[in-house]
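To: structure desk
From: M.T.
Subject: fold request, one chain
Message: Could you run this one when you get a chance? Sequence is below, nothing fancy, just the single chain.
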Amino acid sequence: MITSSTVVNSVVEKLRQALARGQWRSGDMLPGQRELAEQLGISRPSLREAVTVLETLGLVRSMPGKGVLVLDADLAEAAQAQTGVAEASLEDVLQLRYTLEPFIVGLVAQSISSKEIGQLRLTLMDMREALEAEDSEAGVNAYIAFHEELFTLTANPIFQSVVQQTSNALKQSAAVLRNSPEHLAARLEENEAVVRAIRNKNSAQASAQMRHHILQEGRRMGIELNIPDEHPAT
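Reply: Done. Structure tokens follow.
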């Protein structure tokens, strides 16, 4: 069964290819939502999510009351230079996260303070409150905030610039996260397991829990990561 997030990912790729072929050029407006959704055979909500991803990639811009504008190639390249992930697919995003986040949480578990643990737990409480209120937007925002807080806790100064790429990549996938609010409970449970390991100063367990979480995120997006390392896919 194709999940809604997989549909969005597929539509994003189709639209990117159409833009690359010049089907719509810089300064053109994309067809209206109803027309374009019918052409692609998808729902209008799925199309809106795909357009949000394309905006994040710097390829289009929504113009309130007018439609969706195709951006100049130079502007798209500038957006790519700024984010470093403009040409990244969702699988690329997950591979980057899998490479960095488990190592980062392992480091964090070695040096985190009680105050910092408290802040992480408060952000998870925000996720739980959003889940109970069935507020998917707030849930996604809390999810991203939690991972960004983890990124900022690493003391290695070289990591700071690299970590920014992970943060940008995470935001790039936000549209897909919003399109699957039914998975918020699983994301919360997995992130709580990460924090428990961090609180126990167990670096190996924190890293393992984060690897598990990212692999599960991939499966929820319809992506089975092929990880060429010694860690089993749990």
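Reply (cont.): Strands lie at 60-63, 67-70. Let me know if you need anything else for the meeting.
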